[in-house]
UniProtKB/TrEMBL annotation:
NCBIfam families reported in the protein's UniProt record: minC (TIGR01222)
Family: Belongs to the MinC family.
Domain of life (superkingdom): Bacteria
Domain Septum formation inhibitor MinC N-terminal: 13-65
InterPro entries reported in the protein's UniProt record: CAP/MinC_C, MinC, MinC_C_sf, MinC_N, Septum_form_inhib_MinC_C
Record has Repressor as a keyword: no
Name listed for the protein in its UniProt record: Probable septum site-determining protein MinC
Length: 245
């Protein structure tokens, strides 16, 4: 039997800080009746994309004068198995409306919550490329195939998969994705809005590829050389598919 002294030391909970990588759904249109059907159409073309995923709503691209109906949007997103947990960016009125609906503003690790920013000083010329972020990690290497239903996330680094990414599987990296096998599932590079990230696959037959939030599904790959060794990169806001070798 436990003594009163030992029972007194029991803690009902502990709070600890933690860092989590989350997908950001950038809202480009404030209308719920436009956003949700577009997502539902995406689900039909790429089953499993974002399904049951916690996401952050990116508000920077919205017109400050057009405040979405966040209460309605939250309900509609949950009806298609998406769990919005907060927001990032956006004008003050939009952030306030989102917070009133239960979506608090989130901050990146080490960043401050959104406040009125002072006038920015003129940028200084950059003499050389900046060093990689201090939290950048060594490349993650996966030595086996990625099975259907698996999701592998290389946080703060590149990802190398030495086997096949099977249909229904998903690989994500904040940097580049290298697949030394067949890409038959979903590959997402530049998870931290890294527009220069790339995807490499020796056998390119994906369900979906995405770089820094821009994506293409199998039906939208156009003239991409399917079944070949391919490099995927962003040119502006368009994806380019180049044969390797």
């Amino acid at each position: 039997m436990s003594s009163p002294a030992s029972e007194a030391r029991l803690e009902p909970f502990r709070l600890r800080g933690g860092n989590f990588n989350l997908l950001v759904l950038r809202l480009l249109d404030p209308r719920v009746e436009v956003i949700v059907p577009a997502l539902a159409d995406q689900f039909r073309r790429a089953p499993g994309f974002l399904r049951n995923a916690p996401i952050v709503l990116g508000l920077d691209d919205l017109d400050p004068a057009a405040v979405p109906d966040f209460g309605h949007l939250i309900g509609q997103l949950r009806s298609v198995h998406i769990a919005p947990i907060g927001t990032t960016g956006g004008a003050t009125d939009i952030r306030a409306a989102a917070q009133a609906a239960g979506l608090p503003p989130l901050r990146a690790a080490g960043a401050e919550l959104p406040v009125a920013a002072p006038a920015a000083p003129a940028p200084e010329p950059v003499a050389e490329l900046p060093p990689p972020p201090s939290d950048w990690q060594p490349t993650m290497v996966v030595d086996q195939a990625v099975r259907a239903g698996q999701r592998i996330w290389a946080q703060g680094c590149d990802l190398i998969v030495r086997g096949t990414v099977n249909p229904g599987a998903e690989v994500i990296a904040d940097g580049n994705v290298h697949i030394y096998g067949a890409l038959k599932g979903r590959a997402i590079a530049g998870g931290a809005e890294n527009l220069s990230a790339r995807i490499f696959a020796l056998n390119f037959e994906p369900e979906l590829v995405s770089i820094a939030g821009y994506y293409a599904v199998r039906d939208g790959l156009g003239d991409a050389p399917l079944g070949r060794a391919v490099q995927v990169c962003l040119i502006g806001e368009s994806m380019r598919f180049d044969r390797l070798g």
